[in-house]
Design a protein that fits this description.
Shape of chain A: globular
Oligomer: heterodimer
Order of helices and strands of chain A: EEEEEEEEEEE
Distance between the termini of chain B: 38 Å
Largest sheet of chain B: 5 strands, mixed
Number of helices of chain B: 0
Strand content of chain A: over 45%
Helix content of chain B: under 10%
Largest interface: A-B, 26 and 21 residues
Largest sheet of chain A: 7 strands, mixed
Shape of chain B: globular
Helix content of chain A: under 10%
Number of strands of chain B: 9
Chain lengths: 114, 108
């Protein structure tokens, strides 16, 4: 039973390019969460999705960032026109449901903007 | 949303118990306490969670005070591989609020 799979593990983009980060949740998990971790800081919530629905995007920057979790395929976090400040580790987590259950996190995608 | 307060760093001798404290004085009655750890730059790893009773699993024990305003994570026999940042989290609805955690260093 594979865990939460994120790819790529490392992504380098030039300023102004687009970054697409993918997350495949654990089998049977229909809830996906994205977190961002800046250097030397804790993880910050970005967005919570269920299949085809965004449930809570209160942590998403207002511009350039978007997320989706289609009926088929992985969840995608898209960052348009990347800037140096977007350089961070982006972690995806999944859970079977909400409530008192914990998440399972992926290994993250480290985005570097040059 | 309840905030948590943890010491910035701690050391523990290998083979001894590591006791990591956490204060969450504004916790609500239906909010659970979760503990995760992050080893180097890997994804956070779930350790344990509880509501008001003490909990134990194969990794650790969680002791929650009767008033639920604080808790302690206990690693009974710390090993070098337990060196990590440990996060105490009180869950709020759809998200976890990660603070800066406690950096635990296990010393040989």
């Amino acid at each position: 039973n594979a865990g939460v799979m994120q790819n790529p593990r490392h992504l380098v983009r030039r300023r102004g390019q687009e970054a697409r980060l993918r997350c495949s949740p654990m089998k049977g998990h229909s809830h996906v969460y994205w977190y961002r971790q800046l250097p030397e800081e804790g993880l910050k919530f970005m967005v919570y999705l269920q299949k085809e629905n965004i449930i809570d995007e209160s942590g998403m920057p207002k511009e350039r960032f978007s997320a989706e979790f289609p009926k088929e395929g992985p969840s995608i976090l898209r960052i348009q026109q990347v800037v140096r400040g977007d350089s961070a580790a982006y972690f995806c987590a999944s859970s079977v449901t909400t409530g008192a259950y914990g998440y399972t996190f992926g290994s993250g995608t480290r985005l570097t903007v040059v | 949303d309840a905030k948590t307060t943890q010491p910035t760093s701690m050391d523990c001798a290998e083979g001894r118990a590591a006791n990591l404290p956490c204060n969450h004085s504004t916790i609500s009655g239906n909010e659970y306490v979760y503990w995760y750890r992050q080893i180097h730059s890997q994804g956070p790893q779930y350790i344990i969670h509880g509501l008001k009773n003490n909990e134990t699993n194969e990794m650790a024990s969680l002791i929650i005070t009767e008033d639920r305003k604080s808790s302690t994570l206990i690693l009974p026999h710390a090993t070098l591989r337990d060196t990590a940042v440990y996060y105490c989290i009180v869950r709020a609805l759809n998200q976890f609020y990660f603070g800066t955690g406690t950096s635990l260093t296990v010393i040989p």
